[in-house]
Amino acid sequence: MKFPENFLWGGATAANQCEGAWDEGGKGISVSDICTGGKFGQSKMITPVLQEGTFYPSHEAIDHYHRFKEDIALFAEMGFKVYRFSIAWTRIFPNGDEAEPNEAGLRHYEEVIDECLKYGIEPLITISHYEVPFGLTKKCNSWVSREMIDYFLNYCRAIFTRYKGKVKYWLTFNEINSSSAPMGALLNQGILNDLEQPTPFMSQPDIPQQRYQGLHHMFVASALAVQLAHEIDPDYKVGNMMLYACTYPFTCDPDDVLKAQRHNRVMNYFCSDVQCRGYYPSYMNRFFEENNIHIEKADGDDEILKAGTVDFYTFSYYMSSCQTADPTKNNGEGNIIGGVPNPYLKASDWGWQIDPKGLCYSLNEIYDRYQLPIMVVENGLGAYDKIEEDGTIDDSYRIDYLRQHIEQMGEAIKDGVDLIGYTPWGCIDLVSASTGEYAKRYGFIYVEKYDDGTGNFNRRKKKSFDWYKKVIATNGEDLD
Q1: Do residues 230 and 179 make contact, with C-beta atoms less than 8 angstroms apart?
Q2: Cα→Cα distances 334→179, 218, 434, Å
Q3: CB 374, CB 64: distance < 8 Å
Q4: In whole angstroms, what is the distance from residue 177 CA to residue 245 CA?
Q5: Which position among 70, 175, 389, 411 bears the catalytic label?
Q6: Catalytic residue among 378, 388, 407, 448
Q7: For 227-268, what is each residue's pLDDT tens digit?
Q8: pLDDT bracket for residue 351 (50, 70, 90)
Q9: How far apart (Å, rounded) are the C-alpha atoms in residues 2 and 419?
Q10: Which helix (H) or strand (E) holds 125?
């Protein structure tokens, strides 16, 4: 199995899930900062007014803000070629609507970037990763308002200009298509209609019109950001980032096949069709009509979308699911994107079905559709890792998971897919975005921090650390 000679092996994190230091260096409050901890089967809470004595995991996370040099040194020891991380918007513009950026925030990320470059690690930066400024939620209900486009571009201009010549790869919005589902309203778009009462994260009141209008504003902002990046530095490459929810028909009943096709179109392809092709796909007309959604566009929006298509395609891949028209079938436990369990697959401790071959299938489907270079920028196994009496952490189950997915990436490359990079999620343990807990660990590096708030943030190498180091050193040839 041969991976391309300059294949970008690395890992991925997000600011709101790893940095901590939530109120240091001039940082403002983001929507992630108002979410409490939770756990599997118990939703975290959205608290517009912070509650004294309540645990907010993003406030400390794993203290990457203060320990990034130690962490990046560990990434370099593994041999990372690329490190995907995000910039916290509220470190650069604390409220979101300031005219001038916060110098302390700009300087912090310059230090992070320089630390990566010191080791020959390529920075891959997500501009907005689930941390919209809460100030903009309160001011205009975030992406519901067209005002957000200018706020976002002001933010982009500041970081594109500051890091010119040091960064090559940018992603506009993390998992933009998560806003095709109700959970994406606050998580991705910063939309919150009740600024007084606590709300369960997994059961927010949903207004689809808001989410899809917000998506339109994000599409325009992304397209303008692509154009702005190319103007500031022609060497910049700007990609999209999708939550790819691989979906199969539950049976060969034509009704199941059609249900799966419709789900795939809305969930997996609508957003990337706009960002990669530059226009709204015709199949969405029926969806909007049947769901009483009307997209308001300004003059020139269609031209902006056409002129601002992305340079490459990236996505997260964790699981697959099945769609059925049979109303007696129930959604799988833990399956946050909907769908019924596949009887041919096993599942993780959080109910996410494990499907390595689905990654090969997905890569081929995506490349057939867009013919753009692709990166898998999130993939991994959330698990309950245990420190043994001798201090070691044997996560052989994670090695098995990653090995099988890397093998399937190799199969997709054989099929002709232009796959250029792989950054497993949570290369160091961090806070789960969906459940708000530490216990759901993904990393090659264990962080001693726990859901009761205890822990000293010490880092420990897991068994998978040396395994992934070998994978990178052999460019994917030695997966044993």
Answers
A1: no
A2: 18, 28, 10
A3: no
A4: 10
A5: 175
A6: 378
A7: 999 999 999 999 999 999 999 999 999 999 999 999 999 999
A8: confident
A9: 12
A10: strand 122-128
408's tokens: 């399937």
How would you label 8-30 residue by residue, b for 16+ Cβ within 10 Å and e otherwise? bbbbbbbbbbbbbbbeeebbbbb
pLDDT confidence of residue 202: 84
CA 321/CA 247 separation, integer angstroms: 5
Average pLDDT for residues 325-349, to the nearest whole number?
Answer: 82
* Residue 70 designated active-site: no
Range list of β-strands (E), 166-216: 169-173, 199-200
Residues for the chain: how many in total?
Answer: 480
Work out the pLDDT band at 40, boundaries 50, 70, 90.
confident
**Are residues 248 and 223 in contact, defined by beta-carbon separation less than 8 angstroms?**
no
Strands (E) across 129-198 are located at 169-173
Cα separation of 472 and 77, whole Å?
11
* 3-state SS class at 376: strand
378 is catalytic: yes
Average pLDDT, the chain: 96
Q: What are the φ and ψ backbone dihedral angles of 424, each rounded to 5 degrees? A: -55, 145
Structure tokens that stand for 383 in this block: 């698990």
Local confidence band at 330 (pLDDT 50, 70, 90 cut-offs): confident
DSSP state, 342?
A: P
For residue 110, is it left (φ>0), alpha (ψ between -120 and 50) or beta?
A: alpha
- Tens of pLDDT along 85-100? 999 999 999 999 999 9
**Residue 381 half-sphere exposure toward CB, CA atoms < 13 A:** 24
- The strand ranges marked E within 185-319 are 199-200, 237-239, 242-243, 246-249, 313-316
State the average pLDDT over residues 406-431.
98
Burial of 297 (0-12, 13-18, 19+ CB in 10 A): middle
> pLDDT of 394-417, one tens digit each?
999 999 999 999 999 999 999 999
The predicted pLDDT at position 39 comes to 86
